[in-house]
Amino acid sequence: MGSLHADNLESISVCSQNPLQPDEFRRQGHMIIDFLADYYRDVEKYPVRSQVEPGYLRKRLPESAPYNSEPIETILQDVQKDIIPGLTHWQSPNYFAYFPSSGSIAGFLGEMLSTGFNVVGFNWMSSPAATELESIVMNWLGKMLKLPESFLFSSDGSGSSGGGVLQGTTCEAILCTLTAARDQMLNKIGRENIGKLVVYASDQTHCALQKAAQIAGINPKNFRAIATSKATNFGLSPNSLLSTILADIESGIWVHVDATYAGSACICPEFRHFIDGVEDADSFSLNAHKWFLTTLDCCCLWVKDPTALVKALPTNPEYLKNKATESKQVIDYKDWQIALSRRFRSMKLWLVLRSYGVANLRNFLRSHVKMAKQFEGLIAKDKRFEIVVPRTFAMVCFRLKPTAIFDQKLGENGQDYIVEDQTNEINQKLLESVNASGRIYMTHAVIGGIYMIRFAIGATLTEERHVNLAWKVVQEHTDAILGPLDGKLN
Hints:
Blueprint: H1 6-15, H2 22-42, H3 56-60, H4 72-83, H5 105-117, H6 128-144, E1 163-167, H7 170-189, E2 199-202, H8 207-215, E3 223-226, H9 238-246, E4 256-258, E5 283-287, H10 288-291, E6 299-303, H11 306-312, H12 323-326, H13 346-380, E7 385-389, E8 395-400, H14 402-406, H15 417-437, E9 443-447, E10 450-456, H16 464-482
Parallel strand pairs: 2-3, 4-5
Antiparallel strand pairs: 1-6, 5-6, 7-8, 8-10, 9-10
């Protein structure tokens, strides 16, 4: 292997230091906090969507890692100079794209504690506090959502009834529940019959479900995407689902409810009815890292029958055997997830719940819904635009109307394909123009052949003035494409 020369050894001893030396950790930690505090203070000034070209960073950074250490001051200068221009600023108050990724002081500090302790909580023995805190906060949040008792841990914490677990993302939660559902059925009908298993979903369901089905070994031909329509606001029709299911099978179905983004709002009494009927589901999940002030990643999954997960995802090597596990009195979350190692995610969720309380969390969510109503009202005043699907929570889906683009009334039979295609092209052009400006950022969706612009409110720093600014930007770019309204379409 060779040996290090004496001068190299001397260089290393001079430049290196204890990587966790408390005083140096304190000094550099304060610098990072100051850096991020300034970032949040100034984030509104940055272009929301990154304006760099592909490969920009390769041109700025060296081809090899530095041989000797560099001071944190120099590194932070390069973060400011090279990294920040390449960020799309999800925490900007002018960010309205995809879904919220709301942050908070409590979420950030909880993440710091989790990272600082750096425990690997695969089973109870590896860090009892990590396991028990997770069980507690999942019950807290479950009760805030008024989930049925069948989804919660029993009072003694044994997990003998239902229970909750923090996954990384919805993709992981779906894969875990799908795997449990698969094995639950195969245990009844035999492993050799995996080709008979069928997965049902709305055609608007997140692509993660189809990916999970593929990983779980479900025949792609057995993935049933139930068609939706404008008549049901592109929601899943119970009748359509039932008729499809009855054509395949009559019993043994695992029902998972995925409430990733909007599920958080259901802690508000006025929105709780949106998950009525959840008592008949087998599992339920939402992402606290989207609209619940908890930094990525933190997906909350509740299941009625945790043993279905444990049976499908067990890991029991000799080196993990211990008396606590054998006593059946503890939870080993390693068997509730895909990976073995797991982060101390409950720490940040615990800080969020305690730092803000139910009342403030409800008001935070309500404020965004109120702003969405405000934006919806602004759209209604401009005859060039229409709401494509009704607003329910804090996301508004809108577009330029065909009549605004072609300045003529369409026939009673509705738009023909040519008109609709051109309408879609103009709306796409409008969105690209708005996003290229860097002033705000929105994304799109296509449903029923209609290209629509999605305005999702949820960034922690967003205020009413940002919503008003966003609408002003949309109108300015619309004027540039179509010409000012100026009394048109009376």
